[in-house]
Design a protein that fits this description.
Radius of gyration: 16 Å
Structural class: alpha+beta
Largest sheet: 5 strands, mixed
Number of domains: 2
Strand order of the largest sheet: 5-8-7-6-9
Number of strands: 9
Distance between the termini: 36 Å
Length: 151
């Protein structure tokens, strides 16, 4: 029945500024009107809606105002440089400085490589690549570089 996630939505304070930011990420505008824009994440499969609204004042919480974009592991290894070239600052919420990112999340029993950043309104964005699903070994969070050296 369910095949995947088709859409997600985020609040923004300035739609035109946000459109430029998401275009920098390589997303294509699928639909736009005065206070709303949809971007294709994967054309005809998933899109992101941006709504210009005062709801952007809602404080951030992981259950709100967060989107994770799936990327291939090869792209994840280049993600930090890719973001920095676009002038996008990497978040260091987990205590890992930018030079130690991307990081590997111990979502037992799964392992994912991820890197976090924000859009102009502080919405939390993530690039994520599954590394191992149903991984039976518990581990501490580490850099992707450390993970690769343990292979």
């Amino acid at each position: 029945m369910i095949k995947g996630l088709y859409e997600a939505h985020l609040p923004v304070s300035n739609l035109l500024e946000s459109i430029e930011f998401y275009k920098k990420l390589g997303l294509e505008v699928a639909y736009q009107k005065e206070k709303l824009a949809f971007f294709w994440i994967e054309k005809e499969h998933s899109w992101l809606g941006l709504w210009e609204t005062d709801k952007v004042e809602t404080p951030y919480h992981p259950s709100l105002r967060h989107i994770a974009f799936r990327v291939d592991i090869d792209n994840m290894e280049k993600a930090k440089d890719w973001l920095e070239q676009k002038g996008i600052k990497i978040k260091t919420d987990f205590g890992f400085p930018p030079e130690k990112q991307p990081l590997v999340l111990p979502n037992y029993p799964h392992a994912h490589a991820a890197i976090y950043f924000e859009d102009p309104d502080g919405n939390s964005l993530e690039l994520i690549a599954p590394l191992k699903v149903d991984f039976k070994e518990e581990f501490q969070m580490m850099s992707l570089e450390e993970w690769n050296s343990k292979k």
